[in-house]
Structures are given as structure tokens and as C-alpha cells.
């Protein structure tokens, strides 16, 4: 029984693993080492001032334009990859992803930095919230901030302190709001997002769909990815995001706080979860898994059968030892003995011994294996019914049977047949 439970447990684990393997496979879906095409068909630009120029995604204006600073004030923009990705399934599976990018929040030394940019996951690429400039980072606005209907998750790189911010140089995890669920100061690791000189930073955003852990790593461009994240937090994307969502960036400026919010490189690896109805892919998984499961169950059944057969054969071999006895009598069926004793009726009970009860009976049989028959009423016999409680093993039964067979005395009945209960029951 224990071995069968172990086999079934292994089967269940195998089957679950099989279903998982049929529904997820991580792929590199976005790869930009630079942005050269001003009209890249794979990118969607939202906001009047977002553009692709100078090898970068410019979320807010990047132009000197004769020093007219008004073009920088109170701007917001979004840029998305045009295809959505399935982020979770009804069965609880959540996609894992790894995204890396290089950012540059450039400002002139005379500018007050503001406001920053964000790596964004959003439900659509059709519009950007109105009046999402300034502190709203192109994510929300005064009327929508905090609403569950936003269905956005973002990693913000904020360069302007608000009352709810730790400082003017931090990274934060935003869920439907610019008030971060978790944040970390970049000053503590000697990173200044918007310094007076040009500074480019490499960022990694890693999300584990199984553990629901999101981690953010950040260093100066050209340095290796650090061993420890600057921000780590748990979030179940299934609770907040639309099932099919888009990846991209957003950014904003204020007044007078301005800077140039740019993305210079970008890559994304993500688990490819099945499109369409989950039930359809569950059927596909079952279509693959059930035949394999059936084969495994068949194999288990064969193993169990062979073990039982082996046990039965060993048991039969034990009784086969009786064959060496000279003149070993025939073997009767239990139903014959039951009929001969009227179902072991108490009125036919002759006595009780150490190993069982003896009954009187009338039994039809051919003695000495010849064709001569006894009278029509049958042969009068004594049937000894052994007690399982008295016989502790097959050896006891064999010993009793051998002794009765060997005994020859005028006051003792002769052994004419046997029924082997251990073998047949």
C-alpha cells in the first residue's frame, strides 16, 4: 500500500510539472541596444512631446530650441511596446520577467530637477491621463491617483520630492498611485538620478511569478549587475494588472522643475503564457498528460500484479512440497466440502481439536482415482475445518496435513482429500 501511494504521489508531481511546462517558456521579446528609427512600428508614443530621437526614447522634450524653456514645462509622455503580454492565468500561474534598460535624466546645471520617469506596466496603449505632468510622472493625475481602475504597476525614478516621498533622489514601487508601496533612497548608494553632468544608469527589474518577488538593481552604465537589489518587495501582479498588459515607460516635468527623461536601451525577457481561454490549454495539457499518466498507472498495476503473483507463486510452492508425499490424495473444492457438511451445520459436528472442528459429511468422490463409484448417497467422511486463529502459519497447516496423511491405524480415519485455504481464499 505504501509503495502504491508513493507511486501515485510521483505521478501527481509529474503531471503537475507536465502541465506547467506546457504553459510557460521564457523568451526574449524586446531587444533595443539603441533607438534609431524615429517611426519604429513596434513602439507606440503617447503625449504630444514624446518622441524617438538621438538614439533614445524621449519621454519629455529633448531640445534646446534657442533656449525656450517653456517647451519643457508641465509635460508628460508614455512610450510602449505595441504588443501586450499575458501576465497571469486563471489557474494562479503568474508570469516571471526580467527587464533591463539604461536611463538618462539630464538637466542643465541651472535647472531644478523634476520630475522623473518610470518603468510602467499598463492595461492599454490608447491614451495617457490628462494633466499627468509634474508629480504624477505620466502615471496618474489628481482625480485618478489611487484608483483600482488604473491597473498599473510601475517602478519610479523620482527626482523631485513630494510630501509622501523620502527625498528627491529615490526609486519606488507604485501600484495604481504615485504614492509608493515601497521605496529606497539612491543617495545611500552614491547614485544621483539627475546630476549637473551627464550620468547614465543601468537598471534591472526582475519579477518572480512564483514567489511574487520584484527586485530592482541599479549601477552606473558599464558596471556589472550588483549582487543585492536596491529595492525588493512582494506583489502579486494578478491582483492589480489586467491579464493582458503592456510594457513601457512614462515620464514628466513640472514648472519650473525640468529635465530630459530618456531611455537609451531596453530588453525584456518574459514567460510566454498561453493566449485564449485557459481551459483550452488545460485540455491540451491533459491531452498530453493523460496518456502519459495512463502509461504510468499501467506500469504501476503491472508491478503490483507481479508482486502479488510472486507472493502467490511462493505460497503455491509451499503447498507444492506436499507432492512428494506418496499417494497424496486429491484436492477438493471448498464448495464440495461446504455441501457435504450442509454448510458446516452444528448438528453434524463430531468434535473439536487443537487446530479446528471436525464435521460429519457425505461426499461424492472416486477413491484411488479410478472410475468405480460409491453408493448414490456418497461416501461418509469426516471433514476437519482448521481455525485460522489456531494455525499461526502455513508450516503449521503443512505439518498437520503430513501427520494425518502418514498415520495408519484401525481406530483412525484415513486421509482421502484436502482443501488448501491459504492458497484459494
TrEMBL record:
One CC-aspect GO term: membrane
Family to which this protein belongs: In the N-terminal section; belongs to the leguminous lectin family. In the C-terminal section; belongs to the protein kinase superfamily. Ser/Thr protein kinase family.
Keywords linked to the UniProt accession: ATP-binding, Lectin, Membrane, Nucleotide-binding, Receptor, Signal, Transmembrane, Transmembrane helix
Domain of life: Eukaryota
GO biological process: defense response; response to other organism
Transmembrane intervals: 281-305
Pfam family name, one: PK_Tyr_Ser-Thr
Its membrane topology: Single-pass type I membrane protein
An annotated Gene Ontology molecular function: carbohydrate binding
Protein name: Protein kinase domain-containing protein
Keyword Acyltransferase: no
Signal peptide per UniProt: 1-24
PANTHER family documented for this protein: PTHR27007
Organism: Corchorus capsularis
Residue ranges occupied by any Protein kinase domain in the UniProt entry: 344-425
Compartments, as annotated in UniProt: Membrane
Amino acid at each position: 500500500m505504501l509503495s502504491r501511494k508513493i507511486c501515485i504521489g510521483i505521478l501527481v508531481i509529474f503531471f503537475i510539472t507536465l502541465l506547467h511546462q506546457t504553459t510557460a517558456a521564457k523568451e526574449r521579446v524586446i531587444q533595443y541596444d539603441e533607438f534609431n528609427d524615429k517611426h519604429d512600428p513596434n513602439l507606440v508614443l503617447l503625449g504630444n512631446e514624446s518622441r524617438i530621437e538621438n538614439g533614445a526614447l524621449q519621454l519629455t522634450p529633448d531640445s534646446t530650441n534657442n533656449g525656450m524653456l517653456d517647451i519643457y514645462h508641465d509635460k508628460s509622455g508614455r512610450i510602449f511596446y505595441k504588443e501586450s503580454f499575458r501576465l497571469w492565468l486563471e489557474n494562479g500561474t503568474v508570469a516571471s520577467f526580467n527587464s533591463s534598460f539604461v536611463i538618462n535624466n539630464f538637466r542643465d546645471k541651472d535647472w531644478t530637477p523634476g520630475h522623473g520617469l518610470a518603468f510602467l506596466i499598463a492595461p492599454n496603449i490608447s491614451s495617457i491621463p490628462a494633466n499627468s505632468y509634474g508629480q504624477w510622472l505620466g502615471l496618474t493625475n489628481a482625480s485618478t491617483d489611487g484608483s483600482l481602475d488604473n491597473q498599473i504597476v510601475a517602478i519610479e525614478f523620482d527626482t523631485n520630492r513630494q510630501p509622501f516621498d523620502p527625498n528627491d533622489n529615490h526609486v519606488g514601487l507604485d501600484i495604481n498611485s504615485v504614492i509608493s508601496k515601497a521605496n529606497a533612497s539612491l543617495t545611500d548608494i552614491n547614485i544621483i538620478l539627475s546630476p549637473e553632468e551627464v550620468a547614465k544608469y543601468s537598471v534591472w527589474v526582475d519579477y518572480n511569478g512564483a514567489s511574487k518577488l520584484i527586485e530592482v538593481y541599479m549601477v552606473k552604465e558599464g558596471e556589472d549587475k550588483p549582487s543585492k537589489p536596491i529595492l525588493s518587495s512582494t506583489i502579486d501582479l494578478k491582483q492589480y494588472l489586467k491579464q493582458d498588459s503592456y510594457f513601457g515607460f512614462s515620464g514628466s516635468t513640472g514648472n519650473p522643475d525640468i529635465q530630459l527623461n530618456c531611455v537609451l536601451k531596453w530588453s525584456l525577457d518574459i514567460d510566454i503564457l498561453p493566449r485564449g481561454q485557459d481551459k483550452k490549454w488545460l485540455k491540451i495539457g491533459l491531452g498530453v498528460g493523460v496518456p502519459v499518466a495512463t502509461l504510468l498507472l499501467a506500469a504501476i498495476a503491472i508491478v503490483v500484479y507481479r508482486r502479488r503473483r510472486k507472493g502467490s507463486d511462493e505460497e503455491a510452492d509451499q503447498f507444492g512440497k506436499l507432492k512428494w508425499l506418496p499417494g497424496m490424495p486429491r484436492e477438493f473444492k471448498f464448495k464440495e466440502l461446504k455441501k457435504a457438511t450442509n454448510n458446516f451445520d452444528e448438528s453434524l459436528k463430531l468434535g473439536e481439536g487443537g487446530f479446528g472442528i471436525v464435521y460429519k459429511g457425505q461426499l461424492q468422490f472416486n477413491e484411488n482415482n479410478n472410475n468405480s463409484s460409491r453408493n448414490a448417497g456418497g461416501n461418509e467422511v469426516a471433514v476437519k475445518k482448521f481455525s485460522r486463529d489456531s494455525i499461526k502459519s502455513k508450516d503449521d497447516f503443512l505439518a498437520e496435513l503430513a501427520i494425518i496423511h502418514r498415520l495408519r491405524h484401525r481406530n483412525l480415519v484415513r486421509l482421502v482429500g484436502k482443501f488448501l485455504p491459504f492458497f484459494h481464499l
